[in-house]
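Recap from last week: sequence in, structure out.
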Amino acid sequence: MQQEAAALLNWYDANARKMPWRTPPHSDQRPDPYRIWLSEVMLQQTTVAAVRDYFNRFTTRWPTVTALAMAEDADVMAEWAGLGYYARARNLLKCARAVHDLGSFPATYADLIKLPGIGPYTAAAVASIAFDEPATVVDGNVERVIARLFNIHTPLPSAKPELTALATTLTPQSRPGDYAQAVMDLGATICTPRNPACGICPLRPFCAAQPQGTQTSLPFKTPKPEKPTRQGTLWLARAPDGKWLVEERPTKGLLGGTIGFPGNGWDTKSHHDAAPITANWQDMGQIKHTFTHFHAVLTVLAATTSAQPDHGMFQPVNPENLPTLMRKAYDLASAALLPR
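Predicted structure tokens:
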């Protein structure tokens, strides 16, 4: 085993973070591939702190991959609300149903990556953590650790192949799952983006960046273009019986498959040029929300009405099940539309 891997595993044995999807180092309990897969999908583009409650709710409601495979799409989308990147939730169901059809999770990277919605990172994480295959896991934390460890100055994303190749040279044949979690933990707690704690880092004796004083500036990144801003409108109509005018969004595209309020301007696939219903609309102000590729600034118009809409339907709305964008609009409009 590489000296770096041995040092990192010794550190992990004493400092492993406790998470609801993990088994402790040297545990007799085998990691559950369902829980590993679910956590990794949830953790994409999201923090551990944000994911914990979602993970606990999901695994309480759907404790096995078969239970999730049998779930209604709308129920899963509602539980996912607030985690963002809703294509992940749609792919989650597709993958669960594919695994159910197979009878169990495949045990190798080569077979895992064939499943819908599973890319190289998730396939490597499940293969290594759940099945002890020495697959190399590379996420943002790992890229940072490797860039500093080898003092790589090539900017991301161009450096990804080089960093992956270097990470592969360190992946041990023994305890690859613990090693994968160890290097991710190191990046999250010690080798952090700002102010890395080099003094207590188990990889300091092997680090090429620290003696050169370059660790705080690595990895370099190619500047991202400035995000454009889209202006738009959301119409929030509430009937006297308390139901809200909503529509189910197309399965593909922004907030795909979720329940939302009619709008225009912010979503290029929206064809609503006018209010969905004739009503005495009140201008409630604006909300702002940032997507991956643009900022949205939306005017929220609200009304109480019993008129029949041109599109959408009136139905009860649980604000906890709304995507974050729609929840912002709900919170703004409810001040005027909900009884005091």
